Amino acid sequence: MKKLLVTGGAGFIGSHVVRRLVTRYPEYSIVNLDKLTYAGNLENLRDIENRPNYSFLRGDILEVNFLRDLFQREDYDAVIHLAAESHVDRSLENPSEFALTNVVGTLNLLHVAKEAWKGNTDKRFYHISTDEVYGSLGAEGYFSESSPMDPRSPYSASKAGSDHFVSAFYHSFGLPTLISRCSNNYGPNHFPEKLIPLMIHNILKGRPLPVYGKGENVRDWLYVEDHAAAIDVILHKGKPGEVYNIGGNNEWKNIDLVKLLCQIMDRKLGQPGGASERLITFVKDRPGHDLRYAIDSSRLQRELGWSPTVDFPTGLEKTVDWYLQNKEWLDHVTSGAYRDYYDRMYSHR
Ligand code: NAD
Ligand code: TYD
Hints:
Layout: E1 3-7, H1 12-24, E2 29-34, E3 54-58, H2 64-73, E4 78-81, H3 88-93, H4 95-117, E5 124-130, H5 154-173, E6 177-182, E7 184-186, H6 195-205, E8 209-212, E9 218-223, H7 224-237, E10 242-246, E11 251-253, H8 254-269, E12 280-283, H9 298-304, H10 312-325, H11 327-333, H12 337-347
Parallel strand pairs: 1-2, 1-4, 2-3, 4-5, 5-6, 6-10, 7-9, 8-12
Antiparallel strand pairs: 9-11
Bound molecules: nicotinamide-adenine-dinucleotide and thymidine-5'-diphosphate.
């Protein structure tokens, strides 16, 4: 491989993927294509932005003519597609935006890659999906690659839609595609609208910690660099047409996770025990709130030799340390357009 196009590389996971590829593969040329929505931030990549094998291109995957020109000008060997609208709560407010970016945007990329690659099977179109396409589990069981898709939120419906199109391009046109579906990520550069960074942010500001419903919902958390490592392995060793699940084997009830985070924050901030926990506020549940996600990633472990390396206590400490050392980043991303959304979300809780 020589030339890689990463979409959504200025976002949370994308920035870790870009950093890993730029650092590990100096002989590759890595192009980061990102619209820089509220969730995209070039500060995430400041440390590598001057590397000779990295370049940034601002652009929108909804602009198909722009994409077509790009693919005619440059001969990409692979696309790693992460650009998306990614937050479930926002998808409840504006489902159409999710259908556009996640479904139509993905279809645009598939289309131009198919046109430009003309049946070349050495290329790779790698679509980054989510375990949320499988729907919601009860207390038992795990999602495997053969679990039926059963999306419940507009976000997961839009990701499932994009997965179906990727699969259709493999079967109908022979486009060499890969799909991976990962569980919840956490780590540095995570936008403070998602559970873990929102709680860290609110503790720092002395604001309420909104726990939806009774906090009984379960998520399987994976450190973001482990996800980036899995993407690296799947890109290089994955079999076209296949789906790979990625998970942390690390299930937590939301309320237990928030309490653990409160303890870590109290210790790091030199506060008396219980100071952060007092901020926990149970709020109205998210509509259609999926009860539990848990991933069986044994296929990826067995066939491609990946496994998670960062245990949860270590990953959470690293994450908290990063936010404490990067308060300026938090200030930057919570000002401007995001500010309005944040205020609105809080006004009715
Ligand atoms: P994010 O919201 O942090 O980043 C998304 C990026 O996409 C941003 O940089 C944004 O500017 C860019 N983008 C959005 N619309 C665009 C457009 N029209 N054109 C070009 N760029 C656009 O998301 P994330 O958490 O880093 O997730 C990345 C991918 O991984 C998504 O596809 C998501 O569905 C998937 N995923 C996320 C998780 C998770 O826990 N966060 C888990 C599994 C899978
Ligand atoms: P989130 O980080 O939004 O990821 P996802 O919904 O994609 O899993 O939420 C993780 C869990 O935390 C989910 O069960 C919803 C819950 N949650 C809260 O209880 N309070 C919050 O303020 C947020 C953002 C999430």
